[in-house]
Design goal:
The protein is rod-shaped, with a radius of gyration of 37 Å. By secondary structure, the protein is mainly α.
């Protein structure tokens, strides 16, 4: 009977050891997953920031300087003598 108890105790100890190993592996997986999620968020922020920079640059390139119409009033005058 003592031999059976020792064998059973050894089996339980092996199971505990395997469960500890699995728990440690899962902990590492969750840490890596969290790290990857944070990295993905950072990449998305950088991508959005880069898109905003590109859009601002495009808008700057497309913007027209304001025209001061008072400086060249002849631009709008029609020659009524024609």
């Amino acid at each position: 009977m003592a031999g059976e108890e020792n064998a059973f105790s050894q089996i339980l100890e092996d199971i505990r050891s395997q469960l500890d190993t699995i728990a440690n592996q899962m902990t590492e997986i969750f840490k890596k997953r969290r790290s990857n999620e944070l990295l993905l968020k950072e990449i998305q922020r950088e991508s959005a920031s880069e898109k905003n920079r590109h859009l601002r640059k495009s808008a700057d390139m497309m913007s027209v300087n304001s025209i001061d119409f008072d400086d060249d009033s002849s631009f709008f005058t029609a020659d009524s003598n024609k």
